[in-house]
Specification:
alpha/beta; seven-stranded mixed sheet; 16 strands; disordered N terminus
Amino acid sequence: MTPDATAPSPPPAFPARALRTLTHFSLAQQLVLLALLPAIVATLGAIAVLTRQHLGSVTNLMRANGQTVALQVAAMAQTPLARMDRRALLRAAQSGSAQPQVQRVQIWTHDGEIVADAESLESGKAEGLQVVAAVVSDEGSPIGKVMVEISLDAVQKAKNNVWLNVFGVLAASLIGVGLAAWWAARRISAPIRELGEAVDRLGAGKDASVQITGTTEVRRLQHGFNQAARALGESQRLLQSRIAQATAELESKNQQLEVASQAKTRLLAAASHDLRQPLHALTLFSDGLSNGETDPLKLQRIGHIRECVDSLDRLFSELLNLSQLDAGVLQPQWIDFPLDRLFDEISRNFRAVAEQQNLRLVVRKTDLWVRCDYVMLSRILNNLVSNSLRHTNEGGVLIGARRRGKGVRIDVYDTGIGIAVQHQKRVFEEFFQIGPARSTGARGMGLGLSTVQRLANLLNTRVELSSVPRCGTVVRVMIRAAVPAEAAPVLQNGSASPEGEASLAGVRVLVIDDERTILEGLQVVLSNWGAVVMAAQSREEALALADHWDRPPDAVVSDLLLREGDNGLDVLAALERHPRGIGAATARLLVTGETKPDRLREVASAGVAVLYKPVSPRVLRQAIAAQLAALGEKV
């Protein structure tokens, strides 16, 4: 294939490289170079012309000198050459070679025979300039020739002298031009450099005014820069003033927000604690009502009461989760466990709820293992499933998991009302709700998905949501995968429930609570389970009971906050110090309705099992049985 003749040829690379090289020079250097280059070219051109003329003149002078010598020798050789007097011809040739710059003289006959040849004593082997003159007779006819060879040493010396003069003149001119150019360049570049330094000072917020000096154009530029610098300085000072004012306002608003947030937390904590007390008692009494009851109508009403209690329990659980997150008492406990175990627990917890709402709950079996905090992941999935069931009118909820690279993705699908695009990011905000729950379910407080997001942040993972209104929603949680083990790890307390209810028959339990209704409710519930119950409302009553019992109780269930400034931890410590008090064989359990962050941190650091009000009888029974089992007691 032949190249296109019309295609433009690429530009030469040398000029481009030269231009790139020039960009690395300063302005003064470029100005000096700009002045030197024309001076060098002009000087070299003038010297070349003058040198050529001078050398030409020297050569012509040497040729004329040789011609003169040749004519003189020809005149002397006229008669001897006619007589063929070789001796006289040789003397004529020698007289010619004795002339300055003559290195050889030859006399030829008309036939070209050399009849005389004389060389100068200083002649060298270098080729010289040859000049020929004719020898004519008296009648004017040529009878021979004289060849005179002139030495060119003078020309060479002239060349050498010329080059020395050239270099001297060139050096002098370049020095002069360079000094002049450097002076001019400095005069031009110094104000510009000063302007550049002023710009740097201006960028650093310092005084950037420059002294007005130099040429008219430079003075005009300096004057304009000073005006711009003053205007910019004033603008900068004004901007700094506004920034300082805005910063102060922002700090004030942040303080107000912090105060409001603390007030909100205190309000929620106080309201939660005060409301949990009667709710806890209501939970205990509702369970006691159903014990031994056979009337269907009463059982139905008791069921309605339980539904209301469960609804309130969910609301307070959301507040408790939020308070625990605010207090920072939740820290991940990383373990490897089979995901299917958690799925089974979710299925047991929510299958009855789904069936009651005529919905399907599908939990797909999986053999995947994950590395995560069991309780936190359980809370995340419980909140997601509960939220999906609450906002689904028909269809159901599907839970599944699949491997994704080095992680496991858990998907929670529902066929609910869906979430509009503009609300999908806000659903993870606290107290944000986009619509009513299904009529048969309980409406939450808008804290479920907020809790999910904050728990996911603690687990260093992410929660993704996608939804189509009136079609459904899917929430995805990414969890780190783990290698399956031969046996499942031991789960944290309360992370899994036994299939059957533990028996507490004959177990001696001391319950301590300053609320009489809660105390009576605990007595009713524990007695229904076959336990032997001792009750106290304060530390003094608990110590008084210790003075008369024949042996310590098997378990102590105490409220955290009691009257007269006492708390459950102090009561447990006093019972441990009592001569007939509790020992290592006694299970300890705290029950509290506190949600204040400092209280939650105190409870978390106590090392005693804690239940948060309201506590359902089933959870209370499991907790007591778990504590007794941990101590090796047979229940």
